[in-house]
Amino acid sequence: MKSPNTKTKVYNKELSSQLIGTRFSFGKPNQSVFTNDFTLGEDFKITGYQDDNEYSWNVYQTTLEISDIKGNVTSKFDLSSGNLDFIKGQSTKWDDVKFELIKQSRMVYKFDKAVKDNNEKIKIKATESEYLTEIKNEFRIQNIVFPQSSDEKGQKRELFYRGDEVVSFGNFNIVDGYSDFNTYINSLSLSKWTKYTTANEFFLKLSVKGQFELEVIQNYLTYNDKNIQEKGIESVFEELHQSDVDDVFARNVMNFQSGNSRITNSITRYNFNFDKVTELILPVTTNIKNAMIGFTVIGNAEIHDAGWYTSVSKTSPVDIVINTTTFQKEKYILKNLSNIKEKIIDFENKSTGLNQLGEGHLFINVVDNGRTLDAEHINNEFIRVYGNPNVGGAGGFSRGMIETLNLQKNGEYHPTHVIFMDDDIEVLPESFKRVFALLRLVKEEYKDYFIEGAMLDSLDGITQYEDTGFITKNKNTVYMPVKDNYDLRNLHHVMRNDIEYPVDNEYGAWWYCTVPIKYIHENSMSLPIFYRGDDVEFSIRNKAKIITLNGLAVWHLPFYTKKSKALENYLVVRNTIIDQAVNDFIKEVDFFETSIELYKKEIRMFNYGAADQVLDALDDFLKGPEHLFSLKGIEPIIREGKKNEIFSDDIPKEIKCNLHTVDDYWLLNPADLDLFIKTDNGHGLPEIAFNADDDKLENVAIVNQEILENPGKQFMRKRVVVYDTYNKKYVIRERNQQKYESVKKRYQEISTKFSKSGKEITEQYRQYAKTFHSQDFWNDYLEQQKG
Q: Are 62 and 47 in contact (CB under 8 A)?
């Protein structure tokens, strides 16, 4: 029985009938809207907008009620004024949250025939007797790209499109069913193109035939955090960046908060029926600056050409040199050169914009450190191969810079930008074209920015390993990707990837990095450090500010597949300390101390050879800059490689049965952890202190190779099993007091030497900086390395 005070809700049929099918923009007053396609559907469901909080609607008396997916009323809108074009509302959950609905004109067009104007240009006639006009001063900024190779048509396919398979016939592609181009490669980032370039209006242009429905979709993120809702994500992230919190913690918070969001969208639907190939131009209309624009095709469509366009009155001259360095990677380098020739140089261009790159705006320097390429066969008017001694990436890219300057000096080519690119990668020619388009339109205030291409995992094809990285101020972590490993098939991850996360000491790796020519000169060369850190040093030295863009990427073999302590413990450690000494950057971090902590972790894990490699790095640094100059190419790496432990794939059954524990992480209580650290995990303690269970192989703890330290598993063990989860191999490390004492003695000697002369040697490196970076030095160094 109802309470006498309960008011009965009366359904208002008249107002409901007026509102059915009405399309609104939905948002908060004086803030960006959540969606421009908030439609009150005939079945009293909200359509065009996907959110569990706004699922259904109804009208009682003069109140429009919006309910969530469970039927709970989440907001109410007052209809008593009679104005159904602008309706104010209130959240039922939060008293201070207001909403508004603004009526939108319906944007569903049915185009039934094509007509020609006096210039024989195809235009589309709408049933409303309206015409879609040409784009004035059109400039193509992105091609809609379809997968071509069998590899691209596998798991990578969803980076291009989702849905039913698109069949390619060379010059055109057929959609028969449903295809979604709101993807990593084919969506359009309004935030990046409007921020960094002069583009401010955008169009989707297609040459297409068939009967189909096309939806242009504006996607954007709605954040759950109230602070971000009020201030905007850019302001909140910058506040966090400027605060005193640890930079690794700040980076993790930004990644979490970008994920603490949901996708909202606004959809414009069109229906077409063309019996011949017709040029179609659809304007992008939005007031949401951070929207990511994509489209879907439903039905049968024969797509002959498609791309995103803008309208511009002025462009900048751009000429690019690609500098790539290779060492016996013919399979990759020749394939990339072939793709560039086919898709860029020989491409039949039909429009102004990014596809003009092949019209004399690209030159390629290939530095062959292995001297195995047939230069005479490869060289042509846009490619030149240079034989070089094996001086690593640092030497190869420095040679590339020298040859770029020679092209200018000889009047052969006058580049405005240089792309540094790895050899062992797969790259879409579209990435070069989009860089070209962005640079043609870049705003004056951003003309000195680097443009970085992301590294995607070449094994799974879809995971972003890194777009940019940064040197942290955290003593336990030196280098770190700015963003998490996003799955780029996932639209939510793609949109998070479009956000800029502010960090200090950001760098662009040279798997694909575009640099303005102002940074390439006679005193801009790399340090002679072979590789691992030359690109980082170049970015930090030049105080790089970096642009990234979804779709600019290479596929590269991930680093977890080729773990080498010779690289991680010797080369990276040595080069990091040298980089800091030469450039005096990140003074807050003592990289010598950070390296000692790495040494101690290896000791506590019984990896005495790896600990010794760290000491080799410190020892070589302390020998000074002239010693660095004297080192012969790859010889230090070969020397250090002999200290690498050898893993085996012949795994005993006693270990196999416990491999499921490899990722378990065991904690220690504070007292045991203190003992673990003070004694370097029990070194020097009597035998009775150690875990007797280790005598049986099935009881030995198994640790993931990726984890440097797992104190609970290691504590007072006689031995541990280290397992390489990617290569499916293992090694057993055993406690050895004699090796420990030998390495510790050396550690004490090096620490004493650093205490006495570390500052003096650091200053020597700093004084040598101009020499190392000079073209004259590199000419002599390359000549010396030939011997």
A: no
Pairing of strands 173-180, 162-163: antiparallel
CATH code for 109-224+260-311? Answer: 3.90.550.60
- Mean pLDDT on 723-747: 96
Q: Do domains 109-224+260-311 and 320-468+508-562 have the same CATH topology?
A: yes
Q: Which helix (H) or strand (E) holds 290?
A: none
Q: How much is the pLDDT for 129?
A: 31
Which DSSP letter does residue 85 get?
S
Q: How many CA atoms lie within 13 A of 716 on its CB side?
A: 14
**What's phi and psi for 207, nearest 5 deg?**
-110, 115
Extents of the domains making up the chain: 13-103, 109-224+260-311, 320-468+508-562, 566-740
Query: Band of the pLDDT at 5, cuts 50, 70, 90?
Result: very low
Sheet holding 454-457, edge to edge: 425-427, 553-556, 454-457, 464-466
pLDDT in tens, 525-574: 999 999 899 999 999 999 999 999 999 999 998 888 888 999 999 999 99
**8 A C-beta contact, residue 93 and residue 73:** no
What's the rounded mean pLDDT across residues 199-218? Answer: 94
Residues 6+ apart with CB under 8 A from 326: 332, 333, 366, 367, 368, 369, 370, 373, 396, 423
Q: What are phi and psi of 199, to 5 degrees?
A: -65, 135
pLDDT of residue 107: 37
Does the domain formed by 320-468+508-562 have CATH 3.90.550.60?
Answer: yes
- Nearest-angstrom CA–CA distance, 558 and 461: 11
> Could you say which DSSP state residue 684 is in?
T
Per-residue pLDDT, 118: 32
3-class DSSP state of 381: coil
What pLDDT was estimated at residue 119? 32
The pTM of the full predicted model, rounded to 2 decimals, is 0.84
Distance between CA atoms of residues 613 and 620, nearest Å: 11
What is d(CA 367, CA 152) in angstroms, rounded to the nearest whole number? 28
- Pairing status of strand 292-311 against strand 109-116: unpaired
Please give the average per-residue pLDDT across 211-219, as a whole number: 94
Residue 123 pLDDT class (50, 70, 90 cuts): very low
